[in-house]
Write a structure and sequence with these properties.
Length: about 525
């Protein structure tokens, strides 16, 4: 600015607004109140400082970055906040000057405030944004005396705007990509927003549904949806299933989920927003699975009843065959007349015994599947069971030229179990081991306490083994791992399923560990409560 003598004077920040800044503000103040008396001044801080001057100084120094540029483009005042960004403005070639400020319109009626301009500055390695707002300082005659620039920080505002744009974009992308369609209603459940996915679900454009009540969409009146309008309590809801007609008239089943929406300022209830999931195909699959399950259970029950009935019907004549063949073999009623007949009677007796064993196994499997098998529990010594089973299979292993070993520790505890069923389990496992182990192979029967306090029987062999993928088939009734017509090993496929069922009745489980060409381990695990 210039003094009355015409000499230019630059007032720095240290002048504390007592020079050009104060003169400029006083000039503007006098321009606005030309006929009003000067404000009262008091001895605050110094004799020539008025309250208005102190207020002006404090507002300028403690406010946002502010500077005053005179008519020639020189910065005549800069507060402390402006000094902190001066270097950044210079680096960005954004320091205010006459060419950058441009010409102001003249005349008392012209606007004192110019359009804001945003600056991107680097401060202490961070990117900060400021909006520079210009204000004209005019004299009483309307002529431009100086220009004040206030730099408002807009970094947080810009970050908020960016985050809002990102959130809006994210919401738009989500509503387009998710399989559900998204909706929003007012307090009367009238739709105010529907996502574009509704077109894929129902064939409607969103604008065709906006303005319709959500309760009008279902084919039949939904009590749960209607209750949302009448209920004084607005609670979230899930899995309200309604049938809706699409644009072609087909019925589709939707599952609605929603949350109440409240005004963030007043807390007033505004409506609901939520999703609608098309579960038509899912419900059809569920119905098909339920129907298939019921059919399978019915067929399984019919099979079980048939096997049980047939087993009983077959055992009666078989017992007669076994009895008569024993009489004939022992020649109780006299000689048969030929030694060949005696051999035939022995074959009949052996075959009938084998068939009776098979029928008993079928009946036991049927009882287990029907849940009709019961345990006859008693206190048993595992050594007695192992000794009895060993005697039954020892001759068979000897004929197969195999080595049968028994490995038992000295401190085996007693068990509470069904002795007959445990014997049958071990006999089945040992029979399989003998069947699938070649000559000069080794079969071992062992027993021990388990680490968890339970009890373990283990049958190991050096036989042909089973592939890991075939183990589940081995546990299925009537299944054979080798299902060819010319398979090498005969059998019904009931041994392992029956053994697993008996072990399960004791609360335990039967595991197989096997490797083709190496051998198999069958491990019977009984729970700790079976150990005495």
């Amino acid at each position: 600015m210039k003094t009355d003598a015409g000499k230019p004077t630059v007032v720095s920040r240290s002048a504390e607004a007592g020079g050009a800044a104060q003169s400029a503000h006083q000039s503007a103040h006098q321009s606005a109140h030309a006929s009003a008396p000067s404000p009262a001044a008091g001895p605050v801080g110094s004799e020539d400082e008025s309250l208005v001057a102190i207020l002006q100084r404090d507002l300028l120094d403690d406010g946002p970055p502010t500077c005053i540029v005179d008519a020639e483009g020189a910065i005549t005042y800069a507060n402390k906040a402006f000094e902190r960004i001066r270097d950044a403005l210079a680096a960005a070639d954004a320091l205010p000057n006459q060419s950058a400020l441009g010409a102001w319109p003249q005349g008392p009626g012209s606007s004192p405030v110019a359009v804001s301009q945003e600056h991107k500055l680097i401060l202490d390695g961070r990117t900060e944004y400021f909006r520079a707002k210009r204000r004209a300082i005019r004299g009483a005659d309307g002529s431009l005396k100086a220009t004040a620039l206030v730099y408002e920080p807009t970094t947080k505002l810009k970050a908020t705007a960016t985050a809002l744009v990102q959130a809006t974009t994210r919401l738009d992308d989500t509503t387009r990509l998710v399989s559900d369609w998204v909706w929003e209603t007012d307090r009367d459940l009238v739709l105010t927003f529907v996502s574009p996915r509704v077109h894929d679900a129902l064939g409607y454009h969103p604008r065709e549904l906006i303005g319709r009540a959500l309760t009008e969409l279902p084919v039949e009146r939904s009590i749960k949806l209607t209750g949302l309008v009448t209920s004084p309590q607005h609670a979230p809801f899930r899995d309200i299933e309604v049938e809706v007609l699409n644009k072609e008239g087909a019925r589709l089943l939707f599952r609605l989920n929603g949350l109440p929406v409240y005004c963030p300022d007043s807390g007033a209830f505004l409506g609901y927003r939520g999703t609608a999931e098309n579960v038509t195909a899912l419900r059809q699959r569920e119905d098909a699975l339920i129907s298939a399950k019921e059919s399978a259970e019915l067929a399984n029950r019919a099979k079980t009843e048939f096997l049980a009935n047939m087993s009983h019907e077959l055992r009666t004549p078989l017992n007669a065959v076994i009895g008569f063949s024993e009489i004939m073999e022992s020649e109780l009623l006299g000689p048969l007349g030929s030694t060949q007949y005696k051999s035939y009677a022995a074959d009949i007796h052996e075959s009938a015994q084998h068939l009776l064993t098979l029928i008993n196994d079928i009946l036991d499997v049927a009882k287990i599947e029907a849940g009709a098998h019961e345990l006859r529990e008693e206190v048993i010594d595992p050594r007695d069971i192992i000794g009895a089973v060993r005697r039954l299979v020892a001759e068979r292993a000897k004929r197969a030229e195999q080595t049968l070993e028994v490995s038992l520790p000295d401190d085996l505890p007693r068990l509470r179990a069904d002795e007959r069923k445990l014997k049958q389990v071990l006999l089945n496992l040992l029979s399989n081991a003998i069947k699938f182990t070649p000559q000069e192979g080794t079969i071992e029967l062992a027993a021990r306490r388990d680490a968890d306090g339970g009890f373990v029987f283990q049958v190991s062999d050096t036989g042909i083994g089973i592939a890991e993928d075939d183990i589940p088939r081995a546990f299925a009734p009537f299944e054979q791992v080798d299902s060819r017509l010319n398979r090498q090993f005969e059998g019904t496929g009931l041994g392992l399923p029956l053994s697993a069922g008996f072990v399960k009745l004791h609360g335990g489980r039967l595991d197989l560990e096997s490797e083709p060409g190496i051998g198999t381990k069958a491990i019977v695990r009984l729970p700790p409560e079976r150990v005495l």
